[in-house]
Design a protein that fits this description.
homodimer; 303 residues; alpha/beta; Metallo-beta-lactamase, Chain A; seven-stranded mixed sheet; 10 helices; 23% helix; globular
């Protein structure tokens, strides 16, 4: 399974029923956390996401609504006896903030926290692990800010059953064909793998655009993505405020998704001034029909 | 009114229905916040405490469950347009942590935040304002930690109506008598204030003991207090663990309250391992009958 679960969909100031930004990406048995606003550890508990399974955390930028919950989560992980290493990808200044906070509490983490600084002149792949590749790219915001792209590769070749049968390859051998093996017939003749298989199906990709002003420079990162998350802090009536604060409107998010030919769009980071979210959909769907609201506690399949 | 409202009653790791430590002291129209664990700003909203009315914040120590919510609260206050100054009393290292976090976000607070460092060699009165005096004292914990004493003075003398009537003083003059004025009769004879009034009633005092191992050195600070808050992280079965971690049990909190002849005791900071709180009362009431559980959202009058 490849999916994203929303833990917080609000911008700066929390409202009684909306929390600051945090999302969990699940891929097979692995969890990755993207941003970690205040209260994220409580949201993880509420939605029964197992903290212990999180191995990578990505922080897009150092506005508090995207990371004030991080130190609490890390602290709790240690108190709960975590020993598995944790990788953190974030703007470089965060390392010193965490170090200071741990030092003041005389806390030594019980696990290895490896810090990877996101630097503007060093975009690209953050890591590849099995079938998952995570990369990052800059967005345009008031302070340095990064989006993340999660790409689940398909490694298995697709067997063409008619062809395989034509060469008398037993079905028990198909899993080896999927892994690219050739087949030797009893007669000794070699059946080349690509005579009976097709290349792997295309991978699936989720792109998280963090906070950003409307910016067509993002298009190459979003192109053809299966699911794009883009902020929609304001409705169109406040497009000038969005511009001034380096945020976007629902219509702008939808426009980018449409131009990038993304398959689906998820919008979030709603300003606290809005109590109703339906107008965000009403404005974006005419531009990009396949838009959904990022709702807390909801899991969106990336497929 | 002089009262304390509990926003969080749990120790280190939040549970689904208990939050880390935070309390609001209300005295007349003024609010003061004591400790500020993660999620305090959400708890303030939930319990309809007006953030804008908070003018003083006290942080007992730099374990995260007592201050990780502070930067978020301060940030939100600024975003909401606060202009009134805010005083913060905390261990000195907190100033640099806040400074760094604000700097990384390129945030300039819209109000004046004045930082007052709590230092072990400089205990005593933090401020006096109208009838309220706040002082601090060290507790014994794993890192430097401080308790706070909130003392509401009564300034008005108590009129003795029979005496006042005997001197023909009109009731309309009583408020001046309360403020200490003498009265001149029509005959020109002076009635001294203390012939017709009694000194002000004794003040009321709330003492917050923060985190602490069982420590009889606290007794002078608790003596005769109208309400004492003392941590009770563990039940008696874990008294050794309490000792090892510089925490207390319910029985120990009750013992201190009893030895100090406090009037009432509030216990909190319960370990996440306990789902039921009644056993804390069951253990402390035999030692100090006037014990209550610190329950989130509940306001305790200090009277």
């Amino acid at each position: 399974m490849f999916a994203v679960t929303i833990l917080g969909n609000n911008s700066a100031i929390p409202t009684p029923d909306r929390h600051p930004t945090a999302q969990v990406i699940s891929y097979n048995d692995q969890l990755m956390l993207v941003d970690c606003g205040e209260g994220t550890q409580m949201q993880l508990t509420k939605y029964k996401v197992r903290r212990s399974k999180i191995r990578h955390i990505f922080i897009s930028h150092l506005h508090g609504d995207h990371y004030f919950g991080l130190i609490g989560l890390i602290n709790s992980m240690s108190l709960l006896g975590r020993t598995e290493p944790l990788s953190l990808y974030a703007p470089p200044e965060l390392e010193e903030i965490l170090r200071l906070q741990l030092q003041c509490a005389a806390t030594t983490l019980k696990f290895n926290l490896s810090f990877h600084a996101l630097l503007p002149d060093k975009t690209g792949v953050l890591f590849r692990e099995k079938d998952m590749e995570v990369s990052y790219f800059p967005t345009k915001h008031r302070i340095p800010c990064y989006g993340f792209s999660f790409s689940a590769q398909r490694r298995k070749r697709r067997v063409i059953p008619e062809q395989a049968r034509a060469y008398d390859i037993p079905a028990a051998y198909y899993s080896q064909l999927q892994n690219g093996a050739d087949y030797e017939q009893k007669s000794g003749q070699l059946v080349k793998n690509d005579w009976v298989t097709l290349p792997p199906a295309p991978g699936k990709r989720y792109v998280y655009c963090a906070d950003s002003i409307y910016d067509e420079d993002l298009l190459p990162h979003l192109e053809g993505a299966d699911l794009v998350y883009h902020e929609a802090t304001y409705l169109h009536a406040l497009v000038q405020r969005a511009q001034d604060r380096f945020h976007s409107t629902a219509v702008q998010a939808a426009t980018l998704a449409q131009k990038a030919a993304a398959k689906r769009l998820l919008i979030g980071h709603f300003s606290s001034k809005y109590t109703e979210l339906q107008p965000f959909l009403d404005e974006s769907i005419p531009v990009f029909p396949n838009t959904e609201l990022a709702l807390e506690g909801t899991t969106y399949l990336i497929q």
